[in-house]
Specification:
The complex is a heterodimer. Chain A contains ten helices and twelve strands. Chain A is an alpha+beta fold. Chain A has two domains: 103 residues; 342 residues, no CATH class. The two termini of chain A are 28 Å apart. In chain B, helix 4 runs antiparallel to helix 5. Classes of the chains: A alpha+beta, B mainly alpha. Chains A and B meet through helix 2, helix 3, helix 8, helix 9 and helix 10 of A and helix 1, helix 2 and helix 5 of B.
């Protein structure tokens, strides 16, 4: 028998245990809307039995710990999916910007200004206008008005090329800036994780688990995964080692390395381990997405637009330079520059359209053989453009970009679904349920009342015993 | 499966977002009448739309070219008609001016021929939209220059143009020319209107010869030399009348084909891009119904919890 004082003790411990239960329930309730919070529960165990003549007798309840309900496999799956999803989002954003830069958009007041459907503001219409200008001039090659119109169409097209090129370059610069910003944010997370590791190790050295610090660290790990795909390894002392693409960044309580963005040449920003110096081949996260889209789809688009411009310059000038203007001069080029950024119209022709070399011979103002050949270029298959006409090649480039973006859109949608499913699973495991907590609260309350009643009863019994001895 | 507090709210919000996005897309379709507007929404159709657009633009340009050519062909036809009338009268005079006519009558004919020569030179220097039409590609200067003697008689008409004609494209790879060089003595190339060495045509030369013979009363020469020569000029003109007619007919056919081509291209464009409004509206109504049902059920569930029942 543990005796009356033993029962009092048991009651007191029970009160403590129920109170702790209530406190933990309170903690759960307070954090019901905290997405990073994993619910905690009190682990109670029967206190050590004592040996009595009639057998083992229990001595009440004892609290052995406050446990956090967390599934570490779900956590790492979510971190991994976060990396994937952020990589795709970065690519999607950049490709949407590129699509806007091209400016091809179908509307029903399109092409010819009539009710023809088409995309009126992009390079496709610009190319059509140029070749139409050549054709119109071929019907009346000495007309100054038509020469003026043609030169304006040419200028508008070259401006469009310049603008598209400039916007694509802007997107590229933006991506490089984002890479540098993301590297900074990732490094901050690495520092925070190392610091949290230290705090957790300290807190857990004296026994128990630092649940709230672990929640915070997991939040930091998931934030870090937004930028790069990470590998984690839990250590026995409670810390977590973090490595990125094989380079160890956090080992125990110290941060051993950090990320560094560097220019690998020609504005191609890559990421390496700052101390080790090795360039990292990232496999997920926004940084990888930005690099991927910058060096992949965006670079291909810029290259295609440049090739289109340079072939236009070469093919047009090849025919044009042999032509004669209204004053009998020859040998000039119509287009200046070498690519989409630099293409322009010869300023002499802009200032004086009579210098447009439309004729095949000098002194014959009605000769249109050169400008006719220029007009017929529209239907020529150009070897360097995949044996397609200028317009067909451009249509293919636009469709190609659209397909890339459409694919990424589908992947983003899929990734979102997976993320949603994983989050649902995690909240099923770790999320706070009001119903459950309220029920627990009632249980603890009743148990508290019962234990208090026990103490009151034992107290009365003690009084009875004491009052047995009267003086 | 255990449902936490956050799960329901999060899923509810996700579903609402999806429904709202669907409504938004359908609303845009209904308002614009288009199934898509950006390349990402339908990449292959976008490529086809751009190609069709280029095709429509090109065909419209061909129609414009044809219109220009038709105008020049009409101006040419008018001038040729004038020349034909002169040629008819010349041949008539050549027949009438025989030995039965008095010198006075022959002089009268000579004067008439003289005036008709000048009229012919004027027709030879016809213009269309500011360009001389019978000078070949030398469209900036009058093709024919007449030299006259002290009495005002035209003694010679020189051709300043060339024998090149400008081609214009009326459909991919097909070019035509409505231009006629005033004279061609090179032996190759397009047939000259007034002069062509291959067919014995020399309109001005023969008219001047007729006038001179009329003035000198040489009716024998008129019958033996001038009349056959003028007959060759008439044949040459007839050739051009027919050729002009053929060109105009060809241009009309090309114009009709271009119109039909554009009609079918535009129909195709419409099919690729236009939304079926009836279907869109129906789907939109369904989406709206689903949305309001989700809102209603979600709100009533969100409001309910164990807290309502605890005292």
């Amino acid at each position: 028998m543990i005796g009356l004082f033993g029962i009092l003790d048991m009651g007191a411990h029970s009160l403590e245990a129920q109170q702790l239960g209530t406190e933990v329930t309170g903690q759960n309730l307070a954090n019901v809307n905290n997405p990073a919070y994993a619910r905690q529960r009190v682990l109670m165990q029967t206190a050590t039995d004592i040996q009595t003549p009639v057998g083992q007798e229990g001595t009440g309840v004892t609290v052995v710990g406050i446990q956090q309900v967390r599934d570490s496999m779900l956590d790492s799956q979510i971190a991994s999916e976060t990396s994937t999803s952020n990589s795709l989002n970065a690519q999607q954003l950049a490709l949407q910007d590129a699509e806007a830069a091209l400016g091809e958009q179908v509307s029903s007041t399109g092409a010819s200004g009539t009710n023809s459907i088409g995309s009126p503001n992009g390079l496709a219409q610009g190319l059509s206008n140029l070749f139409s200008g050549f054709q119109t001039l071929s019907t009346n090659p000495s007309s100054m008005a038509q020469r003026q119109t043609l030169v304006q169409s040419a200028q508008q097209l070259t401006s469009q090329f310049n603008q598209v090129s400039s916007q694509l370059a802007g997107i590229r610069n933006g991506l490089n800036q984002s890479i540098q910003n993301d590297v900074g944010s990732a490094n901050q997370d690495l520092t925070d994780i190392a610091s949290l590791n230290k705090q957790i190790v300290l807190a857990q050295a004296s026994g128990g688990t630092a649940n709230d610090l672990i929640d915070l660290r997991q939040q930091k790990l998931e934030d870090l995964s937004k930028y790069a795909n990470i590998s984690t390894a839990a250590q026995p002392n409670g810390s977590v080692n973090v490595s990125i693409s094989g380079a160890t960044m956090v080992s125990g309580i110290t941060q051993t390395d950090s990320l560094q963005a560097f220019d690998a040449g020609g504005g191609q920003f890559l990421v390496r381990a700052a101390t080790a110096g090795t360039t990292l081949a990232l496999s997920g996260g926004s940084i990888e997405g930005e690099i991927n889209v910058r060096d992949g789809a965006l670079a291909a688009l810029q290259s295609n637009v440049d090739t289109l411009a340079s072939q236009l310059i070469t093919q047009v000038n090849g025919i044009y330079s042999a032509g004669f203007d209204l004053n009998g001069n020859t040998g000039q080029n119509l287009f200046t520059g070498t690519n989409a950024a630099t293409i322009g119209v010869n300023s002499a022709v802009v200032n004086d359209p009579s210098k447009f070399q439309a004729a095949g011979t000098a002194g014959a103002p009605g000769d249109n053989s050169v400008v006719l050949a220029l007009g017929q270029l529209a239907n020529n298959n150009v070897a360097a453009l995949g044996n397609q006409t200028f317009s067909a090649n451009y249509s293919q480039v636009v469709a190609g970009l659209g397909q890339s973006l459409s694919n990424v859109n589908d992947q983003v949608a899929n990734s979102d679904k997976v993320t949603q499913m994983l989050n649902t699973q995690r909240s099923s495991v770790s999320g706070v349920s009001l119903d459950e907590e309220m029920t627990n609260l009632m249980s603890y309350q009743k148990a508290y009342e019962a234990s208090a009643q026990l103490i009151t009863t034992v107290n009365a019994m003690l009084l009875t015993v004491i009052n047995m001895k009267t003086v | 499966m255990r449902v936490a507090q956050s799960t329901f709210a999060f899923n509810f919000l996700t579903q609402l977002n999806q429904l709202e996005q669907r409504q938004n897309n359908l609303q845009t379709q209904a308002a614009t009448g288009q199934l898509f507007s950006l390349p990402e929404q339908n990449p292959s159709a976008m490529g086809q739309v751009l190609n069709l657009q280029t095709d429509v633009n090109a065909t419209t340009q061909y129609q414009n070219n044809i219109t220009q050519l038709q105008q020049t062909a009409t101006s040419t036809s008018d001038a040729i008609s004038g020349l034909k009338a002169i040629s008819d009268r010349m041949n008539e005079i050549a027949t009438l001016a025989d030995g039965t006519k008095s010198p006075a009558q022959l002089q009268a004919y000579a004067t008439e021929v003289g005036q008709l020569i000048q009229q012919a030179v004027q027709l030879g220097n016809s213009k269309d939209q500011g360009n001389y039409i019978f000078g070949g590609t030398a469209t900036g200067a009058p093709p024919f220059v007449a030299t006259t003697d002290s009495s005002g008689n035209v003694t010679g008409v020189a051709y300043q143009g060339n024998t090149s004609v400008a081609q214009v494209e009326i459909s991919p790879g097909t070019t035509v020319s409505t231009a006629i060089p005033g004279a061609n003595t090179t032996g190759t190339g397009p047939r000259g209107l007034f002069v062509d060495s291959r067919y014995g045509a020399d309109f001005f030369g023969h008219l001047i010869s007729l006038r001179n013979d009329l003035q000198s009363g040489n009716t024998a020469a008129i019958a033996s030399t001038d009349a056959p020569q003028l007959s060759k000029d008439e044949d040459n003109l007839l050739y051009h009348v027919t050729a002009n007619g053929i060109i105009q007919s060809r241009l009309q056919t090309a114009s009709t084909l271009a119109t039909q081509h554009n009609l079918s291209s535009n129909t195709e464009l419409s099919q690729k891009t236009s939304a079926d409004i009836a279907q869109t509206i129906t789907e939109l109504q369904q989406a709206q119904t689903a949305y309001s049902a989700a809102l209603q059920s979600g709100s009533s569930i969100l409001n309910l919890s164990i807290l309502n029942y605890l005292h």
